[in-house]
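Need tokens for this chain, all 577 residues.
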Amino acid sequence: MLCLAWLCASALAADVAVRAQLSQRVAEVGASVQLQVEINGARGDVMPPEVDVEGLQIAYAFPSTSQRVQMINGQITSERSTTHVFEVVPKREGEFTIPALVVTVDGRAYKTEPVALKVQKRGAGADDATKEAKVTAAIEVKKKSVFVGEAVPVEVRLSAEGQMRIEEVPNAPALSGDGFTIQKFPRFTQQQTTSGGMVIAFRTAMTATKAGKLTIGPCDIPFVARVARQRANRSKSLFDQFFPRDFTNPLSSESRRFDATAEAVEIEVKPLPVEGRPRDFSGAVGQFQFEGDGSPSTVKLGEPLTMRLRVTGEGNFDRVQAPTLVDADGWKAYEASEKFEAGNELKTTGTKAFEIPVVPEAKHRQMPQFQFSFFDPAAEKYVTLRSKPDALVVQGEPLVAPPARAAESPSAAATPAPAAAADIAGLRYEEGPRRTFAPIFERPVFWIAHGFAALFALGFVAARGLRRDPAKARIAALRSERDELWRALRGGGDDFHERAARFVQVEAAIVGDVEAVSVDAPVANRVLNADAETAAAIDAIFDGRAARLYAGGAAVAPVSAADSERVLRVLDKLWRR
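Here are the structure tokens for all 577 residues:
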């Protein structure tokens, strides 16, 4: 029985063999190559060997195990195969040798044969199929001259022609640059050209946040493509006759990683004009249409009606805010609700609808009229649109206070009392001055006294108002707003740049004879006669405000402690002078 067991064990155990091989012997700098360490005949699991070669980045990828048992002429044979796969990425060109690797199998050490790898500079070792492939990448901007806040479509295109087929683009390209915000790239589109090539396009929208010449890019696009295998021996072989060198043939092609670079593009960004800017302008830039209607058409005084307002077109819809009431006299408008329906993936086209409850407080014959203002970059001017004033019927009269109830007159004839018994004396009444139980505010003397006091107070206020200088009143109001802004700025918050910009506008309005709403960075620096440090801080304030104002869907980094401290130091100098 022992002899039989020994014979069976010998029959089941195969000879152990280890071998190391590369998927290709010639590679380019940065191109991935697979190193496969194959172990045949092992009974159990085998740990991968340690591999380290200077100039090569080697990382363990995955194991692969298979087992085959067969019987031939009554003899049982078993073969177990384990393959450890490593990813090898050359960092420089030259001749490399992967030394003999030590593999421990069932307690015994086995060595592989050394493997040589030749690394050439990028593009030098490409075979004929790779050389025939033409890969291009480009950044395409629809307009090269835009305005601040204008949403402009941007497209990053990757195309491959010839003996190459793009299989995967692992990550969306990242556009670098300063002075603009950009939305995340949605899913890319893929199409085949008439010549058999392939084009992959990433589309997004860019919004400039400051004026001047801006540079978009460059942009690196790593991708994986299938190309014909590289072979060290270029001579025709029998294998080549049956399996031609075709990138579509899985037996003669392989997947490789490539890098394409799209060159930078420069655009000119123009500032929004200050002259003619409407007071209700909220930063909407584009081409829009505006319409509105209300219902019901017949209401009573004090009952609400609903205004439905719609803004449609193309532009930066994130800056489209609720339209404003043209004439609020006799109306009470409440907070608006909004809903946006995008017309494309970039959300640069669509319809933004608002619903605003409005209560008539006086008699009106027309619906309340609303207006919406935006900047049209094609016409290069501000546009204000108003809703159509449809007919309206307001029923009822304003509520008035009920008249005071008059005191009951004592002139009614007294009902004679029944005769009292002889032994009970009747009630005796003594005549005196008549008195009333009416409240004091219903007595004439109360209103006469308070009327004199009210006339005196009104006269005093009128006299003060006549003596007060309107210019001084304006300066006092601006200083009060500036002090309130300063207290809010020291408390921090997400709207730091918005409050800081308003602080600079108010300070410029106090110093110079300008309207606060029309002050931008150049005007503030001129009016405040700012030095270099102050001018740099003011420019940073307005740039940060614009970045958040026109960020769109893009995330904006919070204000750092160092930046806020530097801005507060400059604003404190303006506040104290």
